[in-house]
Amino acid sequence: MASHRRPKQASRARISVLTAAAATAVALSAQVSAHAAPNPSKKEDVKAQIDQLNEEQEQAAEKYNGAKERTDQLRKQADQLQDQVARGQDQMTQLQAGLAEVAGAQYRTGGIDPSVQLMLSSDPSGYLDKASSVQQASSSQAEALKGLQDQQRRLDQQKTEAAAVLASLDNTTKELNQAKADVNQKLRDAQALLNSLSAADRAALKTAQQQTDRASRDAARADLGSLPQASGFAGAAVSNAMSKQGSPYGWGDVGPNTFDCSGLMVWAYGKAGVSLPRTSQAQANYGSRVPSLAEAQPGDLIIYRDDRSHVGMYIGNGMVVHAPHTGDVVKVMKADAMKINAIRRV
């Protein structure tokens, strides 16, 4: 007779193990799926972070520009002061030698009491001539001594000024190196973020940026033919800046082939015969204030952001030409595409 036994039920412990294993498998499957299909929002998040890093990089670049300008000025000043100190030291040496010669002559001719010399002299008139020479020598010695003291005071002052300038130069050089390091770190961070994306996402970002740039250029070309004609150095500056469309951004550069934002302004106006300050912050205080964008004229400088870390040149029809950031090129954009801080007429 066949045996009809009830199947043996799994123990509660075995059921718990199987349940845990299933849960682990589901979790692993979810992780694999996540890696296979990245979160659609990640690409946008990375782009926003890269945009922020580009802005911070430009801020650091303008700090570098300011520090470099101060460093160059201080180095020139220090060289001039050191030259003055060297010349002053030479003059001191000459004065000291002249004083020693006068003192020696006085000692040789005036070592004996004048009345004794007169009694012993066989030629009193000759002695009187000599006595007159001694008096002149004494006067020359006093003059030389005064000149020596004056020169020593000037030399001490020049040395003090040179030491102060060299100390300032040292501090500014440290600021320059730190700003340079900050720029390079921002660029590395942006590249690392870009590298964190998949190849497909990187390609999609590049395509989107190209489409944005193309749309910007197309919009600009549609209006460029009707740009208001500017004359004088402002008109020349606009023409100069517009001629550099497509030139790569290069932080710290003032042309003629690569530019940062303030460098493009310096180059364009420099070619027109006007010397602008080096940084966007300094340019924000140059010239005269323009109250609003509605009153802007071609050639005006439009300063952006609260910290004044970006600048473009107004070209008319509500547009500016500017050098945006690393990885981009000189191009036009709507003048109000960024937060305007100030408008200055050169």
Structure description:
It contains eight helices and six strands, in the order ααααααααββββββ. By secondary structure, it is of the alpha+beta class. The chain folds into two domains: 40-112 and 119-195, Helix Hairpins, CATH 1.10.287; 226-345, endopeptidase domain like (from Nostoc punctiforme) (endopeptidase fold (from Nostoc punctiforme)), CATH 3.90.1720. A six-stranded antiparallel sheet has the order 1-6-2-3-4-5.
Write a concise keyword list for the protein shown above.
Helix Hairpins, endopeptidase fold (from Nostoc punctiforme), disordered N terminus, elongated, 8% strand, 6 strands, alpha+beta, 6-stranded antiparallel sheet, 66% helix, 346 residues, 8 helices
**What's the number of domains?**
2
Given as residue ranges, the uncertain stretches (5+ residues, pLDDT < 50) are 1-40, 115-121
CATH topology of the largest domain, anyone? Helix Hairpins
Beta-strand percentage?
5-15%
Count the helices. How many? 8
Helix content: 55-70%
Total number of strands? 6
Q: What's the SSE pattern? A: HHHHHHHHEEEEEE
The computed structural class is: alpha+beta
Major beta sheet, specifics?
Answer: 6 strands, antiparallel
Strand order of the largest sheet: 1-6-2-3-4-5
Shape: elongated
CATH hierarchy class name of the largest domain: Mainly Alpha
What's the rounded overall pLDDT mean?
78
From the alpha carbons, calculate the radius of gyration and give it in angstroms: 39 Å
